[in-house]
Design brief:
By secondary structure, this protein is α+β, with helices and mostly antiparallel strands. It has one domain. The protein is built from 3 helices and 12 strands; from the N terminus they run E-E-H-E-E-E-H-E-E-E-E-E-E-E-H. Strands 3, 4, 5, 6, 9, 10, 11 and 12 form an 8-stranded mixed beta sheet that branches. Helix 1 packs across helix 3.
Length: 211
């Protein structure tokens, strides 16, 4: 497992349920009653504001997406990310490993790489490694399929295509398809990720209808 130490405990993002969840309101999660708010963005009507926010985030980082691209057996992916190494995406109100793993079940077994994304561009998981504080894994989400048994997926920057990419243990990165090397890949700054995420939130922010 790749280790990423990050500083601070700041978190941003909003938690809303997705189209595959109950339409109106689900039981209390983390003390809040959560519901999906249909949101329009770039001519598409998303079933939740969280989905729309991820679409805006994809635009900001240069990912080409298709919303609800097709139906698979028991699962309709929320997004298809186009590229040399296409990536399916499932969005949910996930904020810990158990929630990411649970959300990934229906995305598994389709012979395609699928990424589960949650309430923000990173989620943190504490691990014990013998040191007093252990270490923190900060990942983009949970990647399954195409040879992966499921695990943390990490953000990198592809220097060749000038876009952020997803990496786990495969020899190439999603969605660019480039192989790993120090010449082609570099770390993606945490602050920059959240700057894009905040801008995406502003793009889909609820606005009072004009009188």
């Amino acid at each position: 497992m790749q280790r990423h130490k990050i500083a601070g405990g700041a978190w941003c993002g909003e938690g809303v349920i997705t189209p595959q969840e109950q339409e109106r309101q689900e039981p209390l999660r983390n003390g809040y009653a959560m519901k999906a708010i249909p949101t329009e963005y770039r001519g598409a009507r998303f079933r939740s504001r969280l989905e729309a926010r991820w679409a805006a985030f994809f635009d900001l980082i240069g990912w080409r997406w298709v919303y609800e691209p097709f139906d698979l057996d028991g699962w309709t992916p929320d997004f298809l990310i186009k590229g040399e190494a296409p990536l399916l995406v499932e969005v949910g109100p996930c904020s810990n490993r158990a929630e990411y793993e649970s959300k990934s079940v229906k995305a598994t077994g389709h012979g395609r790489a699928a990424l589960v994304l949650g309430v923000g561009p990173d989620f943190e998981e504490q691990h014990a490694d013998g040191s007093p504080d252990g270490f923190t894994v900060a990942s983009a989400g949970w990647l399954v399929g195409e040879g992966s048994t499921g695990g943390h997926a990490f953000w990198y920057l592809c220097k060749r295509h000038s876009i952020p990419v997803i990496y786990q243990d495969a020899w190439y990165h999603y969605p660019c398809g480039c192989g790993w090397s120090e010449e082609t890949m570099s770390e993606w700054d945490l602050a920059n990720r959240f700057e894009h995420w905040n801008r995406a939130g502003s793009a889909v922010q609820w606005k009072k209808p004009a009188a």
